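Section 5.1 Outputs to date
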Amino acid sequence: MTVKGGWTLSRQTWISASIILVTAAAISKGLGFGREILIANYFGATGSVDAFAVAYSVPLFVAGGIGFTLSTAIVPGYHRIGASEGPQRAARFLCSAAFASFMCSVILLAPLWIAPLSVMKLVAPALPDATLQLAADLMGWLSLYVLASNGVYVLTAVFHARNHFKVPAYGDITFNLATIVILVGYSLPLGIYSLVLGNLVGSLLCLTILAGTLLKFAPCRPTLPISGDDMRGLLPLTLPILGYYVCSQIGGLVANYFAATLSEGSVAALNYARTTTIAIVTLVTMNVSRGIFPTLSMLSSNQRNVEGRAIVIALGKLLIFIFIPLSIMLMLRARELLNVLYVRGVFDAAALASTAAVFVFLAATLLVAALEPVLIRTSYALADMRTPFMASLAGAVVLAALLSILTPRQGIGGIGLAMSVALVVQVGIQTVAISGRLGGSVAGELASMMVRSLICGMLAIPALVVVPLRGGLGLVAELLLYMACYYGLALILVREELKAFLTAVGWNDRP
């Protein structure tokens, strides 16, 4: 499709965009999860992985919010400016946002390059001296990686704002391929530094793909002067989003802080459990939320909230339908799954026990984690920047309080429980707020769907004991049999909800 102003990339609807993103994510996340398995194989749950996790969390907290904030604000901002002031003004807004991302990131990351050890002593004083020094050494390189990642996020949002999703998907696959190649080739001579190098090279390659494509097809060129009005106009959009990001990252930092007070490898175990959960969630919902974001922003800008409400409810019900059985399955087979995925090389039984103690709680709230990205982007599409921030602030307060109580009593399992409870509080607040803004009982309809899906999931549990466990194949057989029983029951109890989803996405209108 050719658009006046120089943009000649194709455009996709939110349904085709979601399909593209989920398909690409299946490849990319498969590669990314393979990378995590390699990390566990080469480094296990050791002090070097603790150092990497802590070192990465600091620049991610300090400057990662810039990329997240601007990439999130770009989509609704672009559509609102385009609707009110025209496409050229909207294109200039994109250039201003990209410039702001780079400048703000450099300024915020500068102290981490200047005094890394001092920062690390402040963030994780409980780490052993050798691990602390390694974390400080890694942090400078990881800060550069975060800088490149912010550029990737913002340029990806520029594509998404124009409803183009293919090039960013190719870039994400390239990133994971590069990290795996470097990790495999250089893990022996470079140790944990091979992981840092792989991430950095992968992000730079991805950035090159995105920037190169934009220079060829973009509706504006970076040589255009940056508008001060755009920079000031970004503040009302970005400050609440940045607040949400900071609060959400504080939760991760505090969890790492308490994990560092436990035995060596606890931070690594915590992050393995989180990575496994995130891989499952982001494969579907993170990419669907990105695909639906421009459509919801457009509907909101044109006061078409009834259509937006129908899409949000239908999508929420579909996620409940998908993730309830996965959550039950993962809870009941947490240790067996992690054993198949991770136990090899230096990842031993102790690391498995620590990781499983966290993962079982995260699996219990898998559905909640799946709904969160959709609800956040729905709020932003509705121009409600405040609710995600207030919800994340409440979640951070609850998390900090529970960590201080549960960690001394239950160890690393207490950290998993605290994180799950805090997430439920956070997502509950967002659901109620969106229900109020869209009108009608969004929360009530989702709750009704959840109850019926839970009934189906509980009734299908006997299927898990029919097939004996024999490694990975046994788990797959159990999962398939369980899901078949669940879906059979669901066709009886939630048939109307599935029809409503097909209607909302326009599938029933197709010839």
